[in-house]
Amino acid sequence: MPRRFETPDRLSAVPESDAAAGFGGATPKADGAAAAHARGAAAGELAHPAYPSADIDRTARRVREASAGCRLVSGAPVAAVAPGSPADDAGFTPGCLVCAVNGQPVRDLIDWRWLAADDVITVSYLDTDGDSGEVELERDWDEPWGFEFDGLVFDDVQQCRNACTFCFMHQLPQGMRPSLTLRDDDFRLSFLVGTFVTLTNITPADEERIVAQSISPLHVSLQASDPDLRRRLIGKHAQHGIEALDRLLDAGIEFHAQIVLVPGVNDGDQLRKTLTWAYARPGILDVGIVPLGYTRFQERFDRSYNDADAAQALLAVIEPCQKRALAERGTPWVFAADEFYSNAHPEDLLDHLPPAEWYGTYELFEDGIGIVRSTVDDWEQAERAGAVASCARALREANAVAVVAVGCAQREFLTPLVERSGICDVFEPLYVENEFFGGNVDVTGLLVGEDVARELRRDHMARPRGEHVLYLVMSVCFNDDDVMLDDMRREDVETAAGVAVHVVSCSPLEYFPQIEALVRAGRFA
After folding, report:
1. Per residue, what are the HEC states of 439-465?
2. Is residue 334 a contact partner of residue 289, using CB atoms and an 8 Å limit?
3. Beta strand 120-126 with 132-138: parallel, antiparallel or unpaired?
4. What was the pLDDT predicted at 64?
5. What are 95-127's pLDDT values in tens digits?
6. Local structure of 489: helix, strand or coil
7. For residues 1 and 184, is the Cβ–Cβ distance under 8 A?
8. Is the sign of the CA dihedral 98, 104, 107, 112 positive or negative?
9. Nearest-CA neighbor of 511 among 381, 329, 422?
C-alpha cells in the first residue's frame, strides 16, 4: 500500500550508481547477498521510483486480460537499451521481454539484480516479433548491462487480502484510475520503494526468498501488538502477519514499522503496549506513527487528531519511549507524523518542531515525518543564500506577485515563514480546501485539479484587472505523466481557472530560483 497516500502515483528513476540504496544485510552471513545486490543494481535498470504506478496499472490490466481468457506472458519489459552496451550488442530493443537469467525466471527487479550480478549471464528472451531464444551476455567489471526496464514487478503485484477498518483505498470515490485503487500488499515493493505491507499474504516460499536474498529492510504496517486488537483493525489474517514478522526478525531481516493511529482504538495504553512489544525487537529499526486519514466517502470516521488536546496527548504518550531510546540507542526510535506537531501547536509550530538531528537520515520522510522540518530548513538555507531576497526583488521590480497553491496542512508553517521573511507583499500562499476528498485530507500531494482550478479562478477574479500574477502549483500534485489525482493536467487546470499555471518544485531551495526565472521571462497570468 502507498505511503499514507501522501504522493500521487509518481514514478521517477535515479542514476544506476544510486540504485543499490536500501540493499544490505542485517547479519554477517548477508554480506555476500548485499554485494550481489549492489552489483546487480549496477546492471542497468529502472530504479527506485517513489510509487510504482506502472506496476499497479500493469497488474490491473493483466487481471482484466486473465478474466477475458487471454494468454499472459511474464518477463521484464525492456523500456530502453543503452547504445554500445552488452544488451545493445546482443540486439535487444525496447519492447523485448527478459524472461529468465541462467534459467531462473525474472519475476521482479530484485531477481534481476540478484541473477545479473555476475559478468557472464545467459538471458532468455521474447522479442518484439514473438520469437523466443537465449543469448549469452558478457561485460567488463562494473559495466552496466544496458537494460532499462519498465516497472519493478514483472509478474503481478501481490494484492491485499485484509479488511483494515482505516484503509484509505476503501474511502476513495468510484472511477479513479487503477494505480490509485488497486490495493497492493507486496513485500517486493516494500523493499524497493518503501510501501508498507502487513505480511498477511506472505507464503513460506516468500519468507525463504526474503532471507536468502537478504531483502532487508522492509516496511511493515504494525498497527497493534495485541492479537485481538490487530484482528479488529486488520481482519482475520492479522495473526499470520505478526507471526511472519517475528520469524523474519529472528532470521535477521530488519523493518521500519508504521502505526496508523485510530482515536480510541489503538492509542493510549494500547499504543504503549505496542511500542513496548516493538522496542523489545531490535530488528524493528524505528516506528512511525501517523494519524487516521479519512475522506467524505465513508461514514465510519468523523475525527482524527486534528484538535490540539488530542495531538498533545499522543506526543505525551510517546515521549518516555523517545527519551529511553535516545539514551540507549542514540535515536528517538518512535516518530510522530508532522500533523501531530502542527495540530498540537497551531499558533507557534516553528517553536516546537524537533531539530533536523532528531530525524537522522529522514528514513520515514515519505511517511510525512520530517517534511515540515526539512522544508523549514530549506527555506532558511534559501534565505541565507540570498535566493529569497533575489526572488522578492525581481517580483517587486516587475510589480508582480507569486501565488502558490498548496494544501491547508502548510498553513501553520508557511504563513509564519513568509511573514518572518518580509515577503508578504509579493509571495502569497493560496490554501486550497480539498473538497474533492473532504474529511481531514489537507496535504498538498492530495490536491486535485478541480479544487486547485476553483481557487485559482476565485483569486484571479478578485484581483484588479491587469495585475501581474504568477500562479504556481507544486510538482507533488502531478505524477510523471503530468496528471493529477482527478486526471486533470496542467493545461486542464489552466483552462478551468482561466489563467496561466506554472509547476514548481516543493523545495524552497528550488522554487525561489524557479519563480525568479519565470518573472524575468514575464510569464504572468
Report:
1. CCCCCHHHCCHHHHHHHHHHHHHHCCC
2. yes
3. antiparallel
4. 47
5. 999 999 999 999 999 999 999 999 999 999 999
6. strand
7. yes
8. negative
9. 381
